[in-house]
Amino acid sequence: MNYPTGIKKEHRQIINYSHRGMTLEDDINHSNNYYREKDIAYIYKKPTPIKVTKVDFRKDRTSTIKEAFYQEPSTTDYNGIYKGKYIDFEAKETKQKTSFPLANIHPHQLKHLENITRHGGIGFIIVRFSNLNETYLLKEEDLFSFTEKQKRKSIPLKYFKDKGYLIKENYNPRLDYLKIVDNFLEVK
Amino acid sequence: MNYPTGIKKEHRQIINYSHRGMTLEDDINHSNNYYREKDIAYIYKKPTPIKVTKVDFRKDRTSTIKEAFYQEPSTTDYNGIYKGKYIDFEAKETKQKTSFPLANIHPHQLKHLENITRHGGIGFIIVRFSNLNETYLLKEEDLFSFTEKQKRKSIPLKYFKDKGYLIKENYNPRLDYLKIVDNFLEVK
């Protein structure tokens, strides 16, 4: 649409304000909702695994959990289906400006992504450098070749710039990461 | 292996005993572990969604949840990848002997399975009639055609016998449901 310049500018500011303080998780959930509403893809965040140890049981389905503990997830946070393909990824934010510390991803999550890719799925990580306001998608294959060859405990930003894909932020979907997945699908 | 007849019989008895009291969920988790160990498929049960309202935070990762509530799952319980295909299903037990009450499955779960199948995934339900000791796999397509045509609130056992697949119980994997999925994949 052709807004007068002044309004367009104001519109842009509103968008920026609405993004401020949004976490990567918010942005991905928002994008996944968009994909579902438009019947593009069915990708969900898995619930956080919690071990329940005490419950006040009630018959009316309003049981209250009185004691529980967070557990380590055995897989990645997000999975689902897109264009008939199994999609699986982990998303992390870092405040670092030059590298992404690998301690943010559990070794069994790396192994899981490798298993998925070997079996024909699309596996990747999404990493946001929050202080740079840059979000990258890195394919499992490139993640794996880094961790296998290098003994370094973090992935340099340069590696994301070279091997990864910068995901542009939009209004809706906020993070159109499936646009990047389309590139992989075309190659296959 | 060729055991003397007596031992073979005893062996069978042990297997039966070990199965006694096992829930459908136990059997499916056990089978999924087997599939992973043998590098056949990567299918996991999703954690139960829980809304946490009070937490005692601690720095050493041992935070205790003091109040939380069970939430309704937005999708099905199990999903993953097998032979490059996205797999998605819900599993339910019933004590009924002649039919499976549809109240056991939420309408949004039915909708989810339909979305998955429409996008090229393999969607189904696994239903155990625990008092008959019979477990069936019913494809989403057959589930959908039942719920669309019929106004009945339960699916008769006969429908499972006609349209579904009886899953044999084994020692390992306990419920080899992917053997049945193989049939669908061959047809496609």
Strand content of chain A: 25-35%
- For the record, the CATH class of chain A is Alpha Beta
Overall body shape of chain A: globular
Provide the domain count of chain A: 1
Q: Tell me the major beta sheet of chain A.
A: 6 strands, mixed
Assembly of the depicted chains: homodimer
Sketch the topology of chain A as an H/E string, one letter per element.
HHEEEEEEHEEHEHEH
| Count of individual helical segments of chain A | 6
How many individual β-strands of chain A? 10
Distance between the termini of chain A: 36 Å
Main β-sheet, spatial strand arrangement of chain A:
1-4-5-7-8-10
In terms of per-residue confidence, which ranges of chain A show pLDDT below 50 for 5 or more consecutive residues?
1-18
Helix content of chain A: 25-40%
Q: Using the 3D structure, state the CATH architecture of chain A.
A: 3-Layer(aba) Sandwich
Q: Give the structural class of chain A.
A: alpha+beta
* CATH topology name of chain A: Trna Endonuclease, Chain: A, domain 1
